[in-house]
Write a structure and sequence with these properties.
Elements lengths: L3 H32 L1 H6 L3 H6 L1 H18 L5 H14 L5 H17 L3 H23 L5 E13 L2 E8 L12 E7 L5 E7 L8 E6 L3 H9 L5 E5 L14 E6 L3 H13 L5 E8 L8 H10 L2 E8 L26 E5 L2 H13 L4 E5 L8
Parallel strand pairs: 7-8, 7-10, 8-9, 10-11
Antiparallel strand pairs: 1-2, 1-6, 2-5, 3-4, 3-6
Helix pairs in contact: 1-4, 1-6, 1-7, 5-7, 6-7, 9-10
Length: 372
Amino acid sequence: MLSPKSAELVEATLPAVGAAIGEISKLFYQRMFAEHPVLLRVLFNRGNQANGTQAQALAGSVAAFASGLLAGQQPDAMLRRIAHKHVSVGVTAGQYAVVHKHLIAAVGEVLDVTPEIAAAWSEVYWLMADTLIGLERFLPRGQQDYRVIARFQETEDVVTFVVRPVNGPVPLNAPGQYVSVQVPLPDGARQIRQYSLSGRTDDALQFSVKRDGEVSRYLHDRAPVGSTLRLSRPAGDVTLQPGDGPVLFASAGIGCTPMISMLAELAATDSPRQVIAVHGDRDQFSHPFRAELAQLVAKLEDAQAHVFYELPVGEWPAERTGLVDLRGVPVPRNTTAYLCGPVPFLRAVRAQLVEAGVTDIHYEVFGPDLTR
């Protein structure tokens, strides 16, 4: 909990900080990378820095945490998500002090706040940081080398990689989790990206990569069978939970990867649960795992698939043309829903589920979380 004096100051300045948080975040990253350029080369996603999405995500998380403190509530789901991301890319406890230094300096520079207000926001930061450090302490971390033992062209711009550790066993993993892949780039930087596990294997890991961004292009062009990749241990808190109630898997584009992994797990265990699989894509040829989706649904005792194409090739049902629309899909209120795809898709589908009375909703977003 915030101290009474800090709570008073944070509540009074939250509107001003919230209004300026985008500018604060941008200045924060500029300051931090000027003093620690190696962080941008080996830890932070340069693409997300360039388009501003990382700054937006930081702004949203800090504002959400401060608002939660004032309301006496901690945003546990958001904190778990951040902790898993941090562990997967190798954030250390000591780096929180670096972030604190430049974030509080950016707040002071943008808003010209008093030392007392700066101290209050510093208290907010360390409450959030200490919570994350505590969560991250108990999550498995570390990297190891894997050899590419197979790769498959799913669509024109999606490739699936099957990798096996060079030394040791495959680490524990769960359907819905992801791995971070670090690659060396021509300019000497070592950049990291996360990719969801996209299948069920006993002695290897499988992940799929859409050709989008410098790391993904590297993997498509320079990671043949026999090459070695550096991967983190599997991470991620959006995983298939046990139970016997109905489940919904809703995805768009490459967001189908964790959904296919969860479906494969249910099919492999002969699950009797009611399963509703929904996917949206541009057309049949851009839909990764199209055949696997049909095969897995056919294996399950009580499952159905609803596929939407914006620009279908050939004949296609009119009610399945366009964006994903769950209003025509019967979804029981006690459904556990898993969502993955672009932010506009997540917002739209979540709103439709809430309207239908579904409250148990879990989502994974590729890149900074801008759904708040």
